[in-house]
Amino acid sequence: MQVLTQGTQGIQGTSAPDRRAHRAEDVLAMQRSAHRGGTRSVLSWLAARTRAQIFLVGVDGTILASCGTGTATGTGAVEGERAAELARRGTKELVSRGLGSLVVDDLEHTGLIYSLDCARRTAAPALAAVLAGPGPDGLPQLLADASATLGTCWQAEDNERRRNRLELVEAYNREAVLHLLMNGQVSAARQIAGVLRPALPDVVRFLVVECPSRLRPDLARRCAGLIPGAWVVPCPVHADHLLVLAPVATGEPAGEPVALAAAVARVTGGHPVGVSEAVPLRETATAYGQAFHALAAARGRAQRYATFACRPDPVLVIGPAVAAWAEGLLAPLRGHSPRRPQDPGGAELVATAASWLAFSARATAHLKIHRNTLSARLRQTGQLLALDLDRLAGQSVLALALRAERLSAACRPGPMAHDGAKGGAEGGAASLSLDDLLARPTTVAWAHGLLRPVRTAPPGAALAHTLDVWLRNDARLGPTAIELALSPTAVRKRLTRIEDLLERSLLRSPSDRHELWLAARALDLAEAGTTPAPTPTPARPA
Hints:
The chain has 542 residues and is α+β, with helices and mostly antiparallel strands. 55% of the residues lie in helices and 11% in strands. It has 20 helices and ten strands. It is elongated and about 105 Å long.
């Protein structure tokens, strides 16, 4: 590449055909640089070609980019704040006067300013070249050609930036709709979704696709094209998960969930897919948990997909008494009023607790709060409810209560039905303890059915003992490994086998550890053969 200087032969003082040939070579070189690296690549080429300090300056005088040789010798580049200030001053004058090009100087240095040649001239930045002394004759023509190339590059890059911002805003809005649905605020979610489109259906099926985070944009487009009317949202908690909320048609075939799972697994290139049952829109949180557990089963299957393996819900197994028990347990939390306006109220504490029970430490990403804020809210929640939320027992009690409250609200037809249910709870259910509810024969039978796949596994695998020790150690790998005299990796492998047997997630949140603790507690009570005395608060196991 030939450097453009006042003494360069073949550039000035040459014949017109030679000058045209050199100009064509320069234009071609700039286009190649633009194709290779965009605006910055062209600026670097210009700095090397002209030995000038090259700036890209915004209409407000902001230096957007700069390139130069770093030295000021002869007619070379002028570095430092003086060159930048001359470029800023020239650009502001260019914009204020509405010119296409301008030459400015400060007695020692010369600045050539060109507005980038693009459709949005009023918002386009300017190209500035600053040199010591007057520039060579061929420099204005070179900068004029460069402004046209840079204008095209800048407009394309600006369009890309605007498109990315729009996609980011839409993603945040769709994530907000998902948050509202997960918290049961269906009306607000429908209002926002009505603007974004498509409208939210009445019955949905949740899908969770596990894939590398870099593939999520491409797989999101594929899933949206495969399932008309689907809501596709990158998971805000797990960076390797893609969430799909698919509409369910009335009278769909019985095999539709499996066919949908197979189609999504195929279109996403064999990445694991978990699919929930069809649920009402208000039960989106339940559907997400189902799809997440199905995903745990899909990882170990050759077809790379799985549908949710339905089993009885402990809240429905226990019966109406659990709703009255949950109402009594959560009353201090629901009735909590903050002392200061900036403190969380009862509803915010409930939402925080529900997110933490589902996502553990990742609740900070779900709620967009700092981990210290999360810890403070959980500490306050535990104090209000007299529960030790550092222990799996306290977490399981709270998870059951929140689940019972949510199901009771979903099944309640109206205020009159609520009053009747409250007054007719079987045998003063509000005074029953959790152990009273778990010791019931129906609950014990549910516990036996839940744990049967693990307890009937080959004795040599020691899976039942591993699960008991893991639950006793608050679902922590380290203490479990110490008690079993195994490495954490060996314990993790056993728990993975238990996941395959139960078709539930244990090691990643949302985890099934709360239901498993309730089942283990029910069996412990049945084996002890004792009936706990009624007490207004849930009993804590030792």
